[in-house]
Design brief:
Layout lengths: L1 H27 L3 H15 L6 E6 L16 E3 L9 E8 L6 E18 L8 E2 L4 E7 L17 E3 L14 E3 L1 E3 L4 E6 L6 E7 L3 E2 L3 E6 L5 E8 L2 E4 L1
Parallel strand pairs: 10-15
Antiparallel strand pairs: 1-4, 2-3, 3-4, 4-6, 5-7, 7-8, 9-12, 10-11, 11-13, 13-14, 14-15
Pfam families: ChapFlgA (PF13144), ChapFlgA_N (PF17656)
Main location: periplasm
Keywords: Bacterial flagellum biogenesis, Cell projection, Cilium, Flagellum, Periplasm, Signal
Length: about 240
């Protein structure tokens, strides 16, 4: 009986030691949430989409990962030459204490902006009007070919290719639409020198705003080149 009591005391003592040891180990391990928060704050302060609504997600560490508790401040960093993108690997390190360490975590940024979306299928060569598009919020970090947020300046856009219903309109899908047509009478303005001169001419090419086209001076018959300035004027140079 006395031996049984002694054995029970030994077992209780062993259990207590194990519990104490486990508590001590847990207390000495660095918090995964603190590591993740450090990486997230680093990206949040530096990503290139500061003016947009964003969602930042840090990939969870393996639960088996044990790092000694850092007595100082954790520091986040990027590898040399690395830039913040949609998915970025961020380093977090502890330089204080007896056992310095560092670990790397993938961090994903989603940034949402209002973009133009095709309301219905658009055929190649079509002039894109307000009735052809709608606006919706999209994660622009996943739009590798860019995006459009408006119909542009006077003249808008013309489709280069077939555009599927629901597709986000990108710059490579469109070209600036012509606002001057071949054969149209236009005003030619010359600002060369101290005096501005205006004359009438005829467009020899279709032209989009800001594009160079050939025109003919009606008075002299000369062929000239200029930049489309509006629906009825070209600036000569």
């Amino acid at each position: 009986m006395r031996g049984s009591t002694a054995l029970s005391k030994i077992l209780l003592l062993s259990t207590a030691l194990c519990l104490f040891s486990g508590t001590s180990t847990a207390a000495s391990a660095e918090s995964h949430s603190r590591i993740a928060a450090t990486a997230k704050a680093y990206i949040a302060a530096r990503h290139p989409w500061q003016q947009l609504s964003t969602t930042i997600t840090v990939q969870k560490l393996d639960p088996r990962t044990k790092l000694s508790s850092c007595p100082g401040k954790l520091e986040a960093f990027l590898s040399n030459g690395a830039k913040i993108k949609r998915r970025t690997t961020v380093g977090v390190r502890c330089a204080a204490g007896a056992k310095p360490w560092k670990i790397y975590l993938p961090v994903t940024v989603e940034a949402y902006a209002k973009v133009m979306v095709a309301r219905h299928p658009i055929a190649p060569g079509s002039i894109i009007s307000a009735g052809d598009v709608s606006w919706g919020k999209r994660d622009i970090t996943s739009l590798g070919y860019g995006y459009l947020q408006s119909l542009g300046d006077n003249g808008g856009y013309q489709s280069r290719q077939s555009i599927a219903q629901g597709a986000v309109l990108t710059p490579n899908m469109v070209t600036a639409s012509s606002i001057i047509s071949k054969g149209q009478r236009v005003q030619l303005n010359s600002n060369d020198g101290p005096v501005s001169v205006s004359m009438m001419g005829i467009a020899l090419q279709n032209g989009a705003l800001g594009k160079r086209i050939l025109v003919k001076n009606l008075n002299s018959g000369k062929q000239l080149e200029g930049v489309v300035a509006s629906e009825n004027s070209v600036v000569l140079n």
